[in-house]
Structure formats: C-alpha cells, structure tokens
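Posting this for the archive.
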Amino acid sequence: MHKNSSDRFNIVVIGAGNVAYSLVPIINKAGHNVVQVVGRTPENAQKLAELVKSKYTTNVSDIQVDADVYILAVPDSAILGFSKSLPKLNGIVVHTSGSTSMSVLSSISERFGVFYPFQTFTKGRNISLQDVPICIEASNDTTATTISYLAETIGARAVRMDSSTRQWLHLSGVFSCNFVNHMLAIAQMLAQEQGFSFELIKPLIRETISKALDDNPIDNQTGPAVRGDSETIKKHVAMLSSVDEAIRDLYTDISQSILNFKQSKE
C-alpha cells in the first residue's frame, strides 16, 4: 500500500477524547485527509471534526468504509466494544493503546495493528509529535510499513515493537508520567494547605527532570531516604500523620522503596 513520500491517506478517526483531539490536527497539518470523526457524543465529535473541516457521526453504522486508515483512539476499556460494533472494513485498522493486543481488531480487517504514541495528551493543549516514539505492530510487514510511514509523516519516530515489550513500555510510562504527576499534585496540595506558593517548588522540579533526562536517574537519587536519614523521615511521617494518613503511608512506602533500591544496587 501507500509508502511513497507523495502519498497522503484518507483517515477515519474513531474517538473524540484527548488522544484524538491531539492527533487529528497534526494528521491534517501533515497533509492527510481526516474524512470523518466518529464519536460517542455529537458535541465532541462535531467540535473535533470542525477543526479540520471534516464530517462526523455518532453512529458506527454510518462509518465511511472506503478510507485508507482507521484510527481507534478510544480508552483501552472501550476498544473491545468498538471492535465488536464496527463493520468489516477494507482499510487498515489500528488502535492507540499501550496495553491492548492488536488481535482484538482482527475481525474488522485483514490489515490491522497498533499505532501507540508514547506521549501524554490533554485536550486543548497543543503538542508536537516531533521525535515522539509511536510504537508500531501490525498483522503483516506491508501494513507495518504503511503505518510506520504515517507515523513519520506526522513528525514522530516509528518504532517496531511487539505486544509484550509495548506493555512494559506502557507500565514504565505509568511510573514516569502518571505517578510523577501524582507526586507533584501532592506537593501542590501541601503547598496550598500549608500556605506557601507552588511556584517555590518549580525550580526544583525543573532541575530534577532536567538531571534525570541529562544523566542517569538510577544514580542521581537524593533525599533523606537514600541517605538513611531516619530522624528526618520520622519528622516527615509525624507531620503527614496530622494531614493525611494515606499520603503518610505513601511517603513511608516510597522511602522504603528508595532504600531497598539503593541496597539492591550496592
């Protein structure tokens, strides 16, 4: 199928959430034609479709069946349900999940696969996919080549990856993105509740992330836990006991994990 530099695809995007809202304008800007947006609610589907002057529908029975590529950009929990409701399609069908097997799409098309952008998306926040890895898995080499080409035309880096590795990558993303953000949210909450500005913490956050990216986070751990500073840890535990017991327990567990991690590397 298409893989020449002049090729442009007709694409149907199924979903109108964070991932779809980020991908659709980027795909359109790259010169591909988003011919239809399929969403659960007419408001979201119409709003997304209007961004690229496309058609929209909320009824899977009205899906265009002659597109080149169908991108199923819906939550992981909804992929199986959508795969059962979609008609047989001639084009390539891919989902954007990090933890779902591509085999759930096998009943929709003979050409199917995974198009998983390893990035965090928020509706309304413009984002570039420049050098962002998009993990590619497909039912055959020709399909893999085609969707790899699609990834590269939108500025991303196509990375061939099997399901098992992709699931581990997804898990690493939970730690490096979701859990990190949760820790920052706790820091922000403590700042608000104790009367100092979250702005005071931002230089520390920037340096921490910069150091992790520039060097090796395994060797750059700092803080009372890695130093074995039990007195400071006891003070922090006592402080948190008066604020939130769940956060206190989280602090204790993470501190122990840091210490265990250090000892395992010695």
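The chain has a mean pLDDT of 94. The first helix runs from residue 18 to 29.
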